[in-house]
Every structure is written in structure tokens, then in C-alpha cells.
Amino acid sequence: MNKEIIRSSSRKGLLFGIVMIFLVLINFHIMAATMISKLLGTNVLRGAFPEVRYMIIFLVIYGLWVGWSAVSREGKTITKLLEGLTAGITTGIVVGLFGLILFFLLETQTDVRRYLTALSFPSINIFLLGLRGIGVPVLFGLFTLTGVAGGMLAVGLRSKFITELKQSVRTTVINLRQRITNSLPDKVNQYGKYGIYLILLIVLLLLPSRWGSYNNFVFGMVGLYVILGIGLNIMLGLSGQFMIGIAALFAMGAYSVALLNSPFPHGLMWGFWPSLAIGVVMAVIGGLLLGLPIMRLRGDYLGIVTLGFGEIIRILLNSDLLTDLTGGPRGIQNIQQPTFLGQPFTDVSYAYLIIVAMAVSIFLYYRLENSRTGRAWLSIKEDTLVARATGVDVQKYKLLALCVGAAFAGLAGGIFAARNQFTGPNDHTLMVSINVLSVVIVGGLNSIPGIILGSFALRGLPELLRELETYRLLVFGALLVFMMLVRPEGLWPSTRPDLEEKGSSGLKEDIDAHEEGRGNA
Amino acid sequence: MESEKKSPPKLTRRNYSKIIRPVFGILVVGYILSRLYDVLLVQQAYTAEIWVRLLISGLIIGGVYALIAIGYTLVYGILFMINFAHGEVMMIGTFAGYFLFEATKSINVASAGNPPLSFSNAYPLISVILAFIVGMTVAATAGFFLEKIAYRPLRKAPRLIPLISAIGASFFLQNAAQLLFSPQVRDYANPQAIARGSGWTLIINDSRVIVTYTGVLTFVLSILLMIGLYLMVQKSKLGKAMRAVASDKNTAALMGIDVDAIVSRTFIISGALAGAAGVMWGLHNGLVHFFVGFLPGIKAFTAAVLGGIGNIPGAMLGGLFLGLVESLGPTALGISYQLKDVISFVIMIVILIFRPSGILGEVLSEEKV
Amino acid sequence: MKSRFLVLALILVMVLSACAPRAEEPVVEVPAVEEPVVEEPVVEEPVVEEPVVEEPAGEDPMEICDNDDYGCAVIAPGQTIKIGMGSPMTGGNAAFGIDAEQSGLIAVEDAGLFNGFQFELIAEDDGGTPEGGAAVANKFAADPTIVGVAGHLFSGATFAALPIYEEIGIPMLSPSATNPDLTRQGSRVFNRVPFTDEAQGNAAANYMYNELGFRKVAFLHDGQDYGKGLAEIAAATFESLGGEVVELMGITPGEADYSPVLSTIAAKDPDALYFGGYTQEGVVLTNNMKTSGLEDVVFFGCDGTFGVDFLTRTGANGEGTYHATPRTPPETPEKDAFDTAYQTRWGQAPGELSPFSWNSYDTTTMLIKMVEEVSFVGSDGSLYIPRGALVDAVRELANYIGISGTYTCAPVGDCNVEGPTFWIVENGEFVAVN
Fold first, then answer.
1. Predicted pLDDT of residue B14
2. Is this complex's ipTM strictly greater than 0.85?
3. Would B305 be classed as within a structural domain?
4. Rounded to a whole number, what is the distance in Å from the CA of B192 to chain C's nearest CA?
5. Residue B363 resides in a domain
């Protein structure tokens, strides 16, 4: 029994130790300490190093986490502490050995930055807490102690006392809610939800003019991805077509607005609103052209073809051949800004425009989803053969899905180009398609709140968290994997029941089955 | 799947598809033929040695794609998932080989009377073999952990979920490599014997055509690996188990096959293949950087699809085909080189329209998608 | 459930830290420097009612700011004065951006404190693409404490960013954007210290025709602004001199094997291959030339292909290739000091990652100096920087002695009219030829 415990917790400790080595090798420890430093009020400029005490705080937090996760749910208290201790010791050993190597590098002034860029001498020095050689045993001791402390923390937080406390708090809250709902008249209860929405809407409408242009910029980015996400969702989530080329349709909308509204290359100035409409139409045509040849393809083949289509458009936009038409690699600049009622657009106006566009998109989406068309789409997604047998014109509806989705993409593209005052071929790369796909899946397929949340988490947050700039893609990638492992149905799953038993469409059902299998809450 | 049975009197719409596809195909093929006629027969701008060079380049480029595509297609054939991170596993192999060559380069071996040679140059064969072993091992390990962490828990999930996880893993690995090793592009230190650019010389039309050692090595290696893999899948016990798992996971499990272990081993082999491709890439192209796996990964995926996903000889064929199109296409069609990817994708689309399962079709298991 | 809570908590922590109020005491490793005396505000024409007098701090900020075309940037106590920088910091050309940031950080450190205010370098990744440039410019424009931009680095990105900065009044001083059209836009804010590609392309064509005697040259570029512009200019000049342009075409950047393109060019039997683009592609081209039938053809590169990287990655294949650089920085004590600081801080010598290390240091320092010149401290203790005045001050730089050369800016924004230096690779080293 004991051996098993020691083995499993030392394995965890080992894992944490390796992760810590990795983090040091990518300078993450510096960034974490910097963030902690800023959180506690001391500013650290870019390129400068935080003070040692913040590094200590970071390591302590990490150590606590090690101890905490090493503790298993069942067992005696003393066992749990032992688990924490073992994990802490193992991590301490691993980190200590690593620290020893680093110390050696520091002492001999061996510069290995040619191979491992993060190991600059100040960086090493801070990791060793400024104590050089003594830092090694100190690190070991730190992790050992925090391992135990983490274990104690886990014990404490899961103790009977705390659990009962949580339970009683929960009960009180539920009772309170019940009392309130009972005491209020029925009408309020029924429409209370809408009241909350109304308040949110009012807040949303007031914010853009208050919170500064940078936040408007980020908000706009999030909003555009919501519109794109809705478009992709129609293609992917409603009609089940695996589409990785939405960037091409986005490009059509963007380039329509750009080409019709700038001095170069054509000198046309048709105005934003008409060209936006044209952009949507062009995107729809694009969707049609894309859809016609590929009706027979399914699954991954469809994906690769749409990917190819996206790339073709991008290469053509960038090529010398079409430079006279599309502006080539330089892109299109000085896109004329829209005016509304005589007033030129400011960043606040754009925010409102995007809010309106989002509202329209969401409204259209709900109407479509619950309409005959929507049901036709869903039936195609669930089982094409059966759908056809029941008289659904599969081809027409598939094309329709592509075109409608494309329209949304074109809308987003047009607004995007005008807002940036610029667009070019590299704005419409494969990455864009992948980003939209991630937003939809991570947010929750077929779920509007999910798409909004996903867009914020995957597009908005990275913009806001400037500190994480260098680690952005790292965190993004890890987040995607994490989300799929932990919550594949999305941040805010759709509530539409899926009756399919198995296969590529029964998302929720499959998730439930596989969650059950894992025995997880 | 979608049968072309007679259905209610929507003849006009049904005929759309019947008309559109052939028309599209004829347009594309017609264009290609007319361009070929123009370039080859009318202009006659290029002489034999140019075509030979282009052919050789195409085969070599194709060989590289084929090497990577083989690993892709293996995983797809067994698990029906697109291992988006395959390109990154290849990148890991490239880096591993790079570090090995850096090491052997700096060890000096005294040779009688002459200035000391580095280990690489003194024992090129051993160094290269060592590099491949190291590269393949590291990449195989990476593949193993990749599967264990990012894919195994998602095996029962619908296809989109592991795809997103794969995309996430791909970004994570790319960025990790960039942060660890800096974005700087590094150079492979080939042993002198197979220095890049050295090779056999053919004389055609008074012009020297060089067939590089590394190029030939690439091509030969991809063929060998393909044959080896094919034999393994068809003949060996492991291969049989793989095919069983590919065919029906649950039944295979009932029959006593340890599905987890088989899948693990598939990824290990796929990783090793990617590692070999990575080391070969480094030797031939000389570039090592964190982004090196992305574009070849996508190209290899295209190649695998082209040949028929899950089909090992198909992957080889698809890779070679793609390489040849990229190399010969722009010249033969008189189109700018900037558009070579357009040509590849258009041809791929045309082929898939008329043969949706790829050139050789799906073979590894009975169709499942 | 547990995991969701954890994720939310993590997000909350990160958001809090980002929104945390900037603190009073900046913590940084800065050498102690005595603060310069407060400068009097610089006013252009007598637009202001008040006479232009050496006023001490306490001059009414409102007057000056109201009369300034672009208004004032206000740096509150505790905030930093930010200099922006846009460059490719990831991807195949990341070396350029990283190098620029590294130089810029040293410049900021050397600048020290100004009236108790700290300078800060904000280097953002624009990918070297126009889209990235526009995105970064939009970001910078939304931050009111960014007062100048030492960039962008690549011409394509600079083009896209220019109109955005023009609107807000953020002066640009680029260390490396060489496309000639940049100073033909009638821009008030854009300036640069390197030569233009017109100078470079003309000089290259002349050199190839007259000095090297080439008559048939193939011109390649990487399809991007800088390379394309350069190759086109060089080709046009070459043709006007009487030479034959056997080919003018673009390749796709980022490929690992250009043998097919080169084989096709071999059919046209050129004397030389001129390439407009960056090291990444230049290296591959040079290596591939040896196996595509172009062994005896000379590779003529540009300032985008110059660097130690090229040497190490082409080895013997690089012998006899030509490149260009801005004028070689003269050997001065200041340059030596910078070189040592760079090496110590970053573990590599300046000029290795890109030839613009010294330029970047100078542009950042020049912007800082101009900020110091035009700004003044208001009675509330905030620093006021009149944007219009700053824009003009940068445009009117004269006889500024930097470590990379002496600069005087022409009215259109070109601060250096000295032509390129050409280099040939001999025995694995760059040797100047003019």
C-alpha cells in the first residue's frame, strides 16, 4: 500500500519537476515572477528582471500546487501528507539537479544561449534565487516544504469541516433564491431572464464610448470572430460540412470593401455601405463556386479541398499575375472610412456597428436554426441517406448552408477591412480558418453563448494579456488540448438534444458516454 | 454513401451535379492541355537537360513529401484521425539530428599526419546512422507522449474533437521549439562526404546535371521505408493487429487485442517515420527551425489524401505526384512559379472530384468514414 | 466542475494582473544617470500668443497643446514614455526583429531617466507583413503613451502602418525600410535612416553592368514589397543601360528547395542572378544554384541578404556572391561601447542577426532625444509631449551623430542619402568592394 502511494506521488513529482525545467528553459519563470510583481503593485519594464522575492512567490505557488495535486481523495490524513511530502521531495530532487547544472553553467560562465536561448546568466541567477550555489539546496528544501504544505492545504480544503461548510452555504443560497422567487409575482419570474438580458444590453451599449479605443479594438475583434463563428457553425454545426476554408470567403468580403473604396489600385470610392453589400454577395457567390464541385466529397476530403480553396485564393491575391486587380502583396491601404448620417466613423462607431452586426447575425441564426431549413440541415448532418429518403433535397440545402455561412463571413470581412483601413493577402491565411474553427469548437458547437465565450477566450484574452505575448501560441495550443480533454462539449455547450447514437454528429451523446466511462463528475 | 439513384422529379437539380462536374473537369483538363501544347510544341523554350533537372528535383521533393506522408497515412488508416501535429514531430526529429551533428562536429578525431577531422567527417556513415537513430528515437518518443496526452483520452469522441486537440498540440510544440531554441534558422552540419550539393554529374547536351547524394538518399530512403512499412502492415503480427483495430476497434478488443498498446505502437512507428523524414530533411535542405514542419506537414497531408488516405503506397504515390507537379507544373504550363501551389491544389481538387477516395483509394481497412 | 473553476480562476488572475494599476516606483536595472535639465517647449511658427521665451517648467500646457496640430501626449507620473517598434519577431525573419528589439532596449537603458520619467520600448511582432504592420499600428495608435515608433523594419509593414500613424501624429524613424515610395506619399511623420531601394537598385544595376560587365541578368524577388520593389528598380535600370533582363519573376518565400525555378532560369543562360529579398530565401537560392545548372552564375544579393547567417549557411557556395549594406559604421568609442554592451547583454555580436543593429540603436535614441527636446513638465507633474512638434523635430534632425553614421533629414524624410556599400564574399568573409 505504501509503496504504491510513494510510487504514484513520486511520479507526479517527477512530472512537475520536468514541467518546471521546461518552464525555466522557456523563461516562463521570469514572466510569471514579473506578472506576480505587477499584481502586487510593482511595475517591471520590458526587458528588465523582477526581484527575487517574486520568483520565490512563484516557486512557492508552484510547490503548493505540486503537493496539492499529489494528494488523493481517499485515505488517512497522514497518508495524504506523505503523498505531498513525496511529491515535493521528488520535484525538489529534479529541480535541484537541474539547478546544480545551471549553477555549474553560471560558475564557469558557459554561455549556452546558442542552443538554449533562455539561459542567460541573469535568468539563471534569479532562478537560483540569487544565492548561487546555496540556491540548489534551498530550492530542494523549498519544494519539499511546499509539497507538504500543499498536501496540508488539500487536506484542509477537503476536510469534513470545510465540505460541510460549503454544503451549508450552498443550501442557504438555494433557499434564499427560492424565497425570492416565491415572493415575487409570476410575471417577473417568467420575464426576469429577459430583464437581465436587457440590462446586459444597456451595459453593452454604454461601454464602447467609455472604455477607451484599445478595448474597442479588442471588442471589435471578438465581435467579428463571433460573426465568423456563426457562419462556420452554419456550415459545420448545422449542416455537418467540414469546412476549413472560411478565410477565402472572409477575404471576398474584405477585398470587396477594400477594392471599391481606396485610391489604389482602382481609385473607386463607392462608399462603405454599398460595397459591404457587394462584399456579402461576392462571398455568397464564392460559397456557391466552392460548393458546386465538392458535393460528393465527405469528411476529411472535404476539409482538405476547402483548405486548398482557401490557399488558392490567398496565393492568387498575393500573386504578381493579379496585382493590378488585387493590389498584390502590398495590400490595399487608405480604405475610405464609412460615414453614418454625415458623421465619419470613429472607433466607437465601429463598436456599435459590430454590435448591430452581431445582433443581426445571432437573430438570423436563431431563426434559421428553428426553421424548416434548419431542420433540413440537421437531418442532413445526422444521416444524409435518411434525409434524402424523406425527401430533403440534400444538394440544395448543402449549397444553401455554404452560401448563408459565406454571407456571414463576407459581412465580417467587409467590416474588418474598413476598420483596419487596410487589408492584404496575409490577413486571410490558413491560420484565420483554424482560429475560427477553434473558436467554434472550444466555445461549443451550435451554441451562440458558446461562440461568444470562445471568441472572447481565444481572441480577446490574448490581446488583453500583453505580458503573455511571447507565450501566446504556447498557451493557445495548450488551451485547445486542455479544453478538448476536459470539456469537449465546449465552454457553453449547446442545449439541443442529439438523438444520434454514435458517429460523427452525436456530439453530446458521445461526450456523455465517454465521460461516464471516465467516472468523472 | 450518396447513391445516384433515381429520385423524385427534381431532374434539373440532379443534373446540375451531373453537368457541373464534367464541365469543370473538362475546363481544367482542356486548359492544361492547351498550355502544354503551347509550351512544349510551340515555344519549345526548354531543352532536354532542363527537363531532366526538373524531373530530378520533382522526384526528390516528392520523395520528401512521401516520407512525411507515410507517417500521416499510417495514423489516419488506423485511427481515422488527422494527426495535425505530425509535422511538428518531424520538426522534433530534425532538431534531434541537428544536435547530434553539432555534437559529432565538435568532437575531434586525430588522424595521422593530417589536421584533425571532426567525428562527422572522419566517420560519416556512423554519424549519419547515429543521427537517424537519435532522430527517430526522439521523434518516436514524442509521438508516444503526444498520443498519450492529447489523443488517447479522446479516442471515443467524435472526429472534430481530436482534430482540435491535434491543432492545439501542433501550436504548442511549434511555439515550445521557438521558445527553447529561438527563432533563428540553423544549418545542418552534414558530414563532408554527403555535403549538400555534392553528387554525381551527368552530362546532357553539354550541360552538367547534378544528382545530389542527399537527394538520392532521400528518394531511396522513402521507398525503403514505404516498402518496409507496407510489409510490416501486411505481413507481421503487429500489422495484422493494426488492421484489425482499424477495421473495428471494439471487436478487436473483444478478440483480445490490447487496443491501447496497438495505438501506442502505431504512433511510435509513425513518429519514427516522421523523425527519419526530419533528419533527411535537415540533411538535404539544411534548414532547421521551429516552423519547419508546418508547410511540409500540410503538403504531406495533401499528398496522403491524394493517394488515398490510409493507403501506404498511395501516400508514396501522392507524394511523388505532388512533387512532380510542383516542379514540372509551372514550367510545363508556362505559369509563374508563384502559382505552383495553386496548380497543385487545383489538380488535387480535380482528382478528388472524379475519384473522391484518392488515386489508389482507401485500402488499409474497409471504408469507415 | 473543478477544472472549470480552476480555468476561471486562472483567467481571473491573469486579467487582474493585466489590469493592475501601474505602480509608483518602477523597478528596473538602470545605471544611475543625472537627469537632464528641463527643456523649454519648442514652438514652430509664432502660432501662440505668448512670446517664445525660455520658460521654466510651469508653462501653460493648454496653450501649446491646443495649438499643436496633433495635440499632446500626456504621461502621468508613474507612467513610462513609450517608444514603439514593429518588426518580424517570429517566423523565418525573426532575426531582424529580435535584433532591433535588443538594440532598442540598450538604447532605452542608455537614455536613463528624463525628469523622473522612464522610457520604455514596446516591441511588437508585425510578422514583416503589411497586415501585421497595420495590426500593430492600430494597437499603438490606441495607446496614448506611445509617442514615437522606431520602425517598422520591413517596407511592406511600414506601408500599411504609415497612414495610421499619420492620422494620430506618431513620428516614425525606420532603421531599415528602404522602399522608395515610402517617402513619396507626402507623409509628415515618416522618416528613415537607410538608403532607398532606388539608390540601391540603381547602384546595383550600374555596378553589374559597368564594373562586372554582365549583360544578361535574371531578376528574382520574394514577392514582397521590399524585394519586389528592389528587383523591379534594378531590372529597369539594367535594361535602360543596355543589358538584357532575361527574367523578372517572384518566388514564394519560405520554401526549402528552389531548384525547379532555378533550372528554368538556367535555360536562359544568364551571367548573374539578382535577388531582392531576405537571407532566408537568399541562402536557399545560393545553395540550390549549384545543382540547377547555375554553378557559374553570380548571385547578387542586397541588404536583406547580408549577415553572418548567410555566410554560415552557404559555406563554400557563398563564395563570390555580392551583397549590399548601409554604410559601414565608423569605428568610434561609442560604437565600441555599444558593441560590448550588446555582446554582454545578449550573448552575440551586433550585426550578426541583421545588419541594422546600429541603425536600430540610433533610431531609438534619436526619437528619445527628440522627445526630450520638445516635451515639458506641466504644473501637475505630468509630462506633456506635443505630438506635432515632435513630428517636426524628428523631420528636422540635422547633423545628428549616431553610432551608425551622421544624419540630416531631408524634407521628404530620407535622412541618409549615401549609397550602399557592396560586398563580396571571399574566403568566407565579407569584403567591401566600393
1. 56
2. no
3. yes
4. 12
5. no
